[in-house]
Amino acid sequence: LQVFDGEGKDVTPRPLFHSDPSTVVPRHGKLLASSAYFGATGSGFLSSLSVHQTSGVNASLDEIVEPGSQRDTTVSLSDVQVRQEEIKEELTKADLDRRVDIYLTETETIWILDMPSVVVSVESEDAGRVLERNRIYVDICKNRPGNDRFVEKMMQTINGAAKNKEVQCDKIIMEDKGMMVTSWDLYDSFNVSETESTSKAEGSRAATGKSSKSHTTKELDQTTSVSSDRGSTTSSMILESAVLARNHKEEECHSEAILTSENFQQDLFFMERILMENIFQPKLAAYRQFPVLIDPDVTLDTSGTVAAVKEAKQEEHDKEMKDKEEQKEAFIDPSTLSDLNKTPEEIVPPRLERLWSYMCDLTNGHSVSSMAWNKVNPDLLAVGYGAFDFKEQKKGLACCWSLKNPMWPERIFQCEHAVTALDFSMASPNLLAVGMYNGSVAIYNVRSCNTAALLDSSESSNKHTGPVWQLRWVEQDRGATEDGKKERLICISADGRITEWLIQKRLDCTDLMKIKRTESEKKKLPGEKERKSEALISQQAAGMCFDFRPKDTNFYLAGTEEGLIHQCSCSCSEQFLETYRGHKGPVYKVAWNPFSTDMFLSCSADWSIILWHRDSRTPILTFSSTPACVHDITWSPKSAFIFAAANESRVEIWDLSVSTLNPVVSCFASPRVKFTSVLFAKNTDCLLVGDSKGGVSVFELQNLAAPTSDKV
């Protein structure tokens, strides 16, 4: 049948199911179809079958039709009965008894909700990948500020997993205290005198009122009652304000008592030490040449890493000791041998690594004039702050810095004049001698918190009249009758005197030497007439520095403002043993070599450093690397070849075993800052440099191998 609409189009309904002619229907499919649709109640089922069937019925009928046959959508009842008879005839007992295998398989899992974990175990296989991804994210976050590749954008992120953190603390004990007080009790307590005067006044008024008339008495009584009410209200207000003021004052006194208590101050001191250690721990470890601690969060296996590092360092140390023994037997310099075994790429040049600076608001703007280590405590440093220019004089400071707190000094001694020199005593390490610009000398006790001087030379009649440019505690032999050594305080001043101070009930001094001016040695040309000697303004030359010989402290050197260096003896105060001429300006520092005691260095304002031998008047070597004044020099305590020099523009490290022309290490000063003093650390490879702004910088000497020989 076909159905056409009014326009002649074919609108015949199509079946929803189309059987595939090429599909072969299995035999068990016919069995299922026959059992499903043609059972025992097949006659009743067929009677209700209509011409147009559902897709399920059509499918069962299509399975019965042979492949390749054509049929219409209408099915007659006789055709269905014929097919049923054919199916019944084809099924045999063997077919019914035959075994049919049915396999049940698991279908694909459908995930309705999947929430992955936000944490990964360190022992899992993905731990390395997760750590690498976290490291990349941290690097991206560090590079984000100021980068054009990052744009501020809103987005939805996953909330982090909630964590619970428990902290155990001591139980807080609460106490309730109270008492009942009426306003009249407070009034009677604080205004006893007023109450007595008021009662007397009321008594006199009552006596006077008896002689008055009755109506006048009534009026007075009414007036008295009203005034008493007003007075009680005013007195209660005054009482409340007085109580509040008293409570506030008591609270202030209680807070002040807590802040000034000794236990509280000690707790703050310990807390400050702990904070400083946490802040400066890597730098302090580098200063003491200890290995820097590694954060446990950096690596997964910290114990293995630390053990490997320790094992590698131990192997390296054993190898170095073995090389040194072999080199000592063969008389070869170890630094030369190590450089020969290395390629040019492996040789690392020495350098200065800045660790920290001793500086605070109190010392800012004061020039560092001198530095000295404590003889017993190698972590205690004394620094003097003053000025070398006469026009820029200000009050001085003497501060004691500790390695445990590089941000604030342990002791602060205020001085009326600029501090020019200081030194710790060897016999009494708690005594600090300080020399000042006005010529006075003071001794402080650093063990005491009292900042006043123990002894002062202000009352001495023989005190210096010029700046004390250097002072030092010197141990000298007492003599043949007494055992041991005695300690003396020696000073040199611009008034031309070298003095020894006697520490008794008060400070007093005696002169070791008066530095006399000497005429310059000028060669007379042939035919030149003799010139008259010029009259000297002063018979004494200003002393600038001195240094006692390490082996024999009876001999010492004295540098003068004339540029001369005199060798003197403590047993002879009238004349010099030797005079060394080589500098053209004031000699700022002289220093004996601690290993080769016949050699000494000197620095001057003429931009030069000269190496001398005590038996030769002519210089052995002259070092001049930059056109600037050399303010300070010092020998290394570990090598006879290494010394440090502080110029105005930079600090230099010289190694005579490497070069006598150029320093091996140079470190330049900051703009508008001048280096004024230099000092080696005692037990470590570090250098301290003072500047004109009040800072003492601590530098670590890296890759600077000290030669083993002790002779220059």
Give a written overview of the molecule.
The protein is an alpha+beta fold. It has a domain at 351-516 and 539-702: YVTN repeat-like/Quinoprotein amine dehydrogenase (Methylamine Dehydrogenase, Chain H, 7 Propeller). It is 28% helix and 24% strand. It contains 12 helices and 28 strands. The protein has helices at 27-37, 42-47, 55-64, 77-90, 93-97, 127-142, 183-190, 192-209, 214-259, 262-287, 302-330, 334-341, and strands at 351-358, 367-373, 380-386, 396-402, 411-415, 419-424, 431-436, 441-445, 455-456, 468-477, 485-493, 497-503, 507-514, 543-548, 555-560, 564-569, 578-581, 587-592, 599-604, 609-613, 621-623, 630-635, 642-647, 650-655, 665-668, 675-680, 686-691, 696-702. Strands 1-28-27-26 form a 4-stranded antiparallel β-sheet, with helices on one face. Strand 14 (543-548) and strand 15 form a beta hairpin. Helix 1 packs across helix 3 (55-64). The radius of gyration is 52 Å and the shape is elongated. Mean pLDDT is 76; it is low at 25-77, 206-231, 298-306 and 326-340. Its main location: cytoplasm. It is found in: Cytoplasm, Cytoskeleton, Flagellum axoneme; Dynein axonemal particle. It comes from Oceanodroma tethys (Wedge-rumped storm-petrel).
